[in-house]
Write a structure and sequence with these properties.
The chain is mainly beta. It contains two helices and 35 strands. 4% of the residues lie in helices and 51% in strands. Strand 24 and strand 25 form a beta hairpin.
Length: 421
């Protein structure tokens, strides 16, 4: 009964009328996936940068930072869920992914035999038998993969066969860490607790298969809205520049703090911290960790930066929710200089003026029928299908739902329905 009602509701939800099903008309076939929320990239020493957005990894050539080149992406092989983290070991990339509803999660394995074109080899989602899974981050260290599932704990992946890692749960306690980094014989996991505070948990991996919880730090979630690891320091960005000493992994120590303009992100390059805020970039010296001090302000537009990371010894990369990739030259720390700005997604480059709403949590999946392209978008717990005038003039598309309901979508029109029913 419900499914029949759903089909009727869909018919009234579309701006233009549907035609009756016709088996002679073309069905939709998957074309590619584009965009989505950005996560921290993997940066190769040669200047290649691998950027995860939504369910896709894109390879960029930044050997000339002033002229970034987009090499290729895995849009034809998207992950089953949104990518939460990306890490590298040798000629392999590993992406942790999860579905927003916790029904599925795992690891995508990519070959870098051709560094310019990562190839998905397989997805692994049998790392645990638990029904509810939510992988938040992954990091490679000590010839292992360390997978964090906020509901099921910390898993260690054996990489004796790098194309097919196998996982063992080592710490059963659930973890809610969104970022994990490796330095020496330690892992540094950073996240937020249920009260909004920022957490730093350090693990000793001297015995790689038996990680041991070491030091723990708890910080103000406003001052340390984003906490960045820069051994031997960890620096918080938010309403302050908050410096912590992690040289002793068993006992993190608070050092200096200075109030700052609001910053949603930041990066540490050398002895300077760069906070990216609403109206530019502020530069701070960390030469004396007990007394961080303001150096300069730059009007470089860094609004809505979701991720910021060092790039070499004299640069930083910023990735914004406006789909921008920004390279900033900080060779002269007090005088940051924007050397390049480019758009992350080809869809954003081609259709920004008429299709600003394409971006979604899990990215966009494009489907084609004949010569047209039809965006298929996940948003929260709904799916939105939209025929866009710039890509489908005069088009008509068949959409088949999971229950077998067939709907014809005219251009320009759209439909909305629950992702699960």
């Amino acid at each position: 009964m419900f499914r029949s009602s759903l089909a009727m509701a869909l018919a009234f939800a579309v701006a233009a009328p549907f035609a009756h099903a016709d088996t002679a008309r073309p069905s939709l076939s998957f074309l590619t996936a584009l965009g989505g929320s950005v996560r921290e990239p993997v940066i190769d020493a040669s200047g290649f940068v691998y950027v995860p957005t939504g369910a896709v990894v894109t390879a960029w050539d930044l050997r000339q930072p002033g002229a970034p080149v987009r090499l290729g992406d895995t849009g034809a092989q998207p992950t089953t869920g949104k990518i939460t983290a990306l890490t590298r070991r040798g000629a392999w990339l590993y992406a942790s992914w999860t579905r927003y509803d916790g029904t599925d999660a795992g690891v995508a394995v990519y070959s870098l035999a051709d560094p310019a074109h990562p190839q998905l080899v397989r997805e692994i989602n049998d790392y645990t038998d638990e029904d509810f899974r939510y992988v938040t981050t992954i990091v490679a260290a000590a010839d292992r993969l360390y997978l964090f599932d906020q509901e099921n704990g910390l898993f260690v992946g054996n990489l004796s066969d790098p194309a097919r890692p196998t996982f063992t749960r080592t710490l059963p306690t659930g973890t809610g860490f969104g970022y994990a980094y490796a330095h020496g014989n330690h892992l540094y996991a950073i996240g937020r607790n249920w009260l909004g505070g920022t957490m730093l948990q350090i693990y000793d991996i001297t015995q790689p298969d038996l990680p041991l919880a070491a030091g723990l730090g708890g910080y103000d979630g406003f001052n340390d809205f984003r906490l960045k690891l820069a051994p031997p320091l960890a620096v918080g960005f938010g309403l302050a520049i908050d410096v912590h000493d992690v040289s002793d992994p068993w006992q993190p120590v608070d050092r200096g703090m200075v109030e700052s303009p609001v910053a949603l992100n930041g990066a540490v390059v050398g002895t300077h911290a760069y906070s990216l805020g609403m109206d530019g970039i502020d530069v701070w010296t960390l030469a004396n960790p007990d007394a961080p001090a303001f150096v300069a302000h730059s009007t470089i537009d860094a609004f809505a930066t979701d991720e910021a990371v060092p790039f070499g010894n004299a640069g930083l990369l910023a990735f914004s929710r406006a789909d921008r990739l920004l390279h900033v030259d900080v060779g002269t720390p007090a005088q940051p200089r924007r050397s390049s700005t480019t758009l992350l997604s080809p869809l954003a480059r081609n259709h920004r003026s008429t299709a600003p709403s394409w971006k979604a949590v899990d990215g966009v999946k494009l489907w084609k029928a004949g010569s047209g392209v039809l965006p298929f978008m996940y948003w929260a717990d709904e799916v939105i299908v939209q025929a866009q005038p710039e890509t489908t003039i005069g088009g008509q598309f068949q959409v088949t739902l999971e229950d077998g309901t067939t709907v014809w979508l005219n251009d320009p029109s759209s439909l909305r329905f629950p992702a699960r029913y």
